[in-house]
Write the structure tokens for this entry.
Amino acid sequence: MKTILVVDDQKNYLIVLEELLRGEGFEVVTKRSAAEAAEVCRRADVDLLLTDMRMAGMDGIQLLSEVLRIDPDLPVILMTAFATVEKAVEAMKKGAYDYILKPFRNEELLAAIRQAVQVRELRHEHRQLQKERASRAVFESQSPPMREAIRLAEQVAPSATTVLLSGESGTGKEILARALHAMSPRAERFFIPANCAAIPESLLETELFGHQKGAFTGAVAMRKGLFERADGGTLFLDEVSEMTPHLQAKVLRVLQEREFERVGGEQAIRVDVRIIAATNKDLRELVEAGRFREDLFYRLFVFHIHLPSLRERAEDILPLAGHFVRQFAAEMGKPIGGLTPEAQAALAAHRWPGNIRELRNAIERAVVLCAGRLIDERDLPGDVVRPAGGLPPAVDAGKRNGGTLAQVLEQYERQMIVQALARAGGVQARAARELGISRSNFQYRMTRLGLREPSGEGGDPQDRDPAPRDA
């Protein structure tokens, strides 16, 4: 049910509008001042604001500006009996969805409201689609650990099974959660993310479960929680390890019984929500330490997917960097075609403690600074160009993961080949000479490591080296 906030300093108008809109199936909140209406928008979920233009104190134009700072996508329809072209133009320039003259016909008002609510839903769906397209590009991988994570995701996506995603911060857990939602039968419904670490403990309960009007000081209207808003869709609980024991118990009940009560409410609300949880901590260790409920752990651990760090998927660094270059160059309208060999080498050699998020931020910064057609290493952050000492990422990852000598050497060999290709601008013969091996040996190693097709040159003809072949 959509919620409409109606604001007018004339009580009779509020009574008439509330009766009309409730009869059409809307939930209605009425206020007689703009200041009260702004407070409702801060504390409750509103799908549309219908406000009078002329009111004592803050007027409709001022209220429009205030609520769009709170929710930039909120459709606002202004009503007035004192129409002027100048006021109409001012309202539309400041972001109003529509402008209705008093007295109005009910059919005219209802048509404008339905259209505005539909536009809001379409904007949300468009943003979801953009994020899902971006996720597909991020998860195109040559890395065996990442390919395994993708395989598992594709298998579990069509079901309603609860999924637990683990991995370091910045490895793309929310992106994979969005991809799971997009590949599921719930794709037409909402994907709702909730960062349990970012929301203050005192607010997280009402954020997840909602509250009734009057449940506490400041609860000026009923507010649906994220579980309720995600009904029929997917709720992503990021950093689930940060929830208090009290909230862990409430989430466990939803997983077991598919119902809950709003804060201050007594009526059980049933929901059909798929839960995808994520953590960058070891939940088993937290269970053993008594900081995470064992029963909730097993409810979440139905299907586990671990995302490798970017250090563990070194062969994906340059393709990901290329994707981000294209994305940000298009957004900023800059004619940037790629990265210089020096920039590619710097990216390939960096350890990326912040993983994909750090790489994305580094490329965004580089696109901002780039004055030419190719990003150079001087456009990259200083810590990327001058990495700290230590083992090469592939070797370090292999040691930490307890890999055999053969596995560690294979990871390091793959990383050296990828970096040499980057420095050689993709020309295999030059990369082979740098590594001190023949071109045929170089190509054999690329094929064995899955970096090229078993037959053919691989790559575009223009990438081939015009210099004589190696012996």
